[in-house]
UniProtKB/TrEMBL annotation:
Superkingdom of this protein's organism: Bacteria
Keywords: Coiled coil, Hydrolase, Magnesium, Metal-binding
Gene3D superfamilies per UniProt: HAD superfamily/HAD-like
GO molecular function, one term: metal ion binding
Family the entry assigns: Belongs to the 5'(3')-deoxyribonucleotidase family.
Protein name: 5'-nucleotidase
Keyword rRNA-binding listed: no
Residues forming coiled coils: 333-360
Organism: Oceanispirochaeta crateris
Family matches, as SUPFAM superfamilies: HAD-like
């Protein structure tokens, strides 16, 4: 897959390249991973007094949520919103929200994610959260005794957080890496190539060192050709980083002995080795590079991209694994999209003709209104054809939500964040394998509406 470019990024000027680990350096089989998380979280909830035992029998449906959705804790809805904060699709439980109800609740509202009533699902780790929340709201709608929507959302979030923290999930992964982890030989080749070009490499991950070591041993070591282990590739490894706090607050560094895994307080320069915790202020100071000389790649739009741009001005790259299926859908739907474009061009020409005639009539020319009637009839015919083609187009994408980076005709809120904060983005980190470490990434010139010659001609 190609690398997609939002802003100029000259890799020749990048001296340090940092990576998140989970879903970035190491990819997971997302459906299997999220199904496991969903199952464990549902079981924990079913063991609580205020949740029925039937919760543990809920069947995971991977299609029920996508990256970039928003939970409305007040109304119990799952939303897809546009870059302007407008709700385009809404589900209450597993049922689409009636359009009239959607209008009543959201028509006058632009969703502000700083409002505690809303929770964004901005990473692949959040798919299980969205699915389980929707299923519990559905159960509540069907008469099961469950807490309020806000409490449901917070309980699901809490249980999933605990699962990630207490080794419940990671112990299952370690026992069966083959099932959950995608091996990609190109990642090892890409990293060794960057080393050959003199780039410093580092990992900043929220996972603990023990899990990091086991996962990296499994996924990278078998494919290294010029290094014995992955630890020989990286100058600095920072575990339990607690992002986005790592980029927003000051925490102390602990040095980790890679053999014993014992930790000790570290106040010396952070320039080589394996650490836990810390903060970007000391890291960047000790590295001795400006923010524009450091590139960081991650999968979490807020924790790995937005927080960096707002605090330390590093260059950023987003790994959006879900985009691979979306691109496949775009390719398969190409013929339908071309038909839609053709009809839209006809519609635009027809609208110009109607506007021209209507303007002449307004200026006093003796043009009967009946001349417009066949044009409006033709417009209705075009609209019907376009509506049918749009229905066909949607078949190629998620059956409930459509595209990740589109919300109806508009770009989605998630797309707006990708465009605004990620210098480049890609479906997987190994997409960089096909580019020289000195590549000059240049975006295409963006055409603003007033620059579109088809509208001005």
């Amino acid at each position: 897959m190609p690398v997609f470019i939002n802003r100029v990024l000259n890799m020749k000027n990048i001296k340090v390249i940092g990576f998140d680990m989970d879903y970035t350096l190491i990819r997971y089989h997302a459906e299997a991973f999220e199904e496991l998380t969903h199952k464990l979280a549902a079981k924990r909830l079913s063991e609580r007094v205020d949740y029925p035992e039937e919760v543990k029998n809920l069947v995971f449906d991977f299609q029920r949520a996508i990256v970039g959705l928003v939970i409305d804790k007040r109304n119990g809805n799952l939303l897809q919103i546009s870059r302007h904060g407008k709700v385009k699709i809404a589900y209450h439980g597993l049922e689409p929200l009636d359009f009239h109800k959607q209008q009543i609740i959201y028509q006058e509202m632009a969703i502000d994610l700083r409002d505690p009533d809303f929770q964004s699902l901005d990473t692949s780790f959040a798919i299980s959260y969205g699915v389980l929340f929707s299923q519990l709201v559905q159960m509540k709608s069907e008469g099961y005794s469950l807490p309020g929507y806000r409490e449901i959302a917070e309980d699901v979030n809490h249980e999933i957080d605990i699962l990630h923290q207490d080794d419940s999930i990671k112990s299952r992964l370690r026992a069966d890496f083959d099932r959950y982890v995608i091996k990609d030989p190109k990642v090892a080749g890409m990293l060794e190539r960057y080393r050959d070009y003199g780039k410093k490499l580092m990992i900043i991950t929220n996972s603990d060192y023990s899990y990091t070591r086991q996962l990296m041993d499994y996924a990278l070591n078998p494919y290294l050709k010029k290094h014995k282990t992955w630890q020989d590739l990286f100058d600095i490894v920072i575990t339990f980083a607690d992002k986005p706090r790592f980029f927003e607050q000051k925490g102390r560094f602990l040095r980790i002995d890679p053999e014993t895994e014992l930790m000790s307080n570290h106040t010396e320069p952070v320039d080589f080795g394996i650490y836990q915790g810390g903060n970007f202020h000391k890291l960047q100071k000790d590295l001795g590079y400006s923010g524009s000389e450091i590139l960081y790649l991650g999968d979490h739009i807020y924790g790995d991209v937005v927080s960096i741009k707002k605090t330390c001005n590093w260059r950023t790259a987003l790994v959006l694994g879900d985009l691979e299926d979306e691109i496949s859908g775009l390719i398969k739907s190409k013929d339908v999209q071309q038909q839609i474009n053709k009809l839209m061009d006809e519609k635009l020409a027809l609208e110009k003709e109607i506007n021209f005639i209507d303007a002449k009539r307004f200026e006093g020319e003796n043009i009967p209104r009946s001349r417009l009637t066949p044009l409006f009839d033709k417009m209705d015919g075009l609209n019907s054809k376009i509506s049918e083609l749009l229905r066909q187009y949607k078949i190629f994408f998620n059956p409930y939500w459509g595209e990740i980076l589109r919300a109806g005709f508009d770009e989605s809120r998630y797309a707006e964040q990708v465009e605004k904060y990620a210098c480049i983005y890609m479906t997987k980190v190994s997409d960089l394998y096909d580019y020289s470490p000195k590549t000059y990434f240049r975006p295409y010139r963006r055409i603003m509406p007033h620059e579109d010659m088809t509208l001005l001609s």
